[in-house]
Amino acid sequence: MTLFVAIDTNGIDPEEGAPAPERVISGQPTFRTWNADGTGEGVYAGLWEATPGKWRITYDEWEFCHILTGLSVITEDDGEARMVKPGDSFVLKPGFKGTWEVLETTRKEYVIHLPQQAG
C-alpha cells in the first residue's frame, strides 16, 4: 500500500451536485467533486468544480482551497468581497458565512478538515 496519493480526476467518477435551492441567489450553479483521498477521520482532499451562479455559503469545517481555473467572488457577510483566480490559495475557517459567486466555471483543489464530533 502506498502512502503517496496523486490528486487528479483520472479514474475517479465525480459526484454531481448543486447548492440547496434555498441557498441559490442567482443562476443555476452545479458542482462536480472528485474526492481523491480521505482519512475517514474528517480529513478529505480532491478537486471541486462549479458552474456560474451565486449562492449562500456557511462553513462548519476548515478548508484550504487552491484555484486552478476560472474566476469567482467570495463575499463575507461583513461585506468584504474577494476575487479568486488561478493561482490563488486561501483558507475558509469554521464560522465563515457569506456568498460564493462563480463568474467563470471554477475548479479548485481542496483539503477539508471536519470538526471533531462530540462522542
UniProtKB/TrEMBL annotation:
Every copy of the (S)-ureidoglycine aminohydrolase cupin domain together lies at: 41-110
Query: What is the superkingdom listed in this entry's lineage?
Result: Bacteria
SUPFAM superfamilies in the record, alphabetically? RmlC-like cupins (SSF51182)
* InterPro entries from the UniProt entry: RmlC-like_jellyroll, RmlC_Cupin_sf, UGlyAH_Cupin_dom
Stored PANTHER family: (S)-UREIDOGLYCINE AMINOHYDROLASE CUPIN DOMAIN-CONTAINING PROTEIN (PTHR40943:SF2), CYTOPLASMIC PROTEIN-RELATED (PTHR40943)
Please identify the protein, giving its name as recorded.
Answer: Cupin domain-containing protein
**What is the species listed in this Swiss-Prot or TrEMBL entry?**
Tianweitania aestuarii
Supply the source organism's classification: Bacteria, Pseudomonadati, Pseudomonadota, Alphaproteobacteria, Hyphomicrobiales
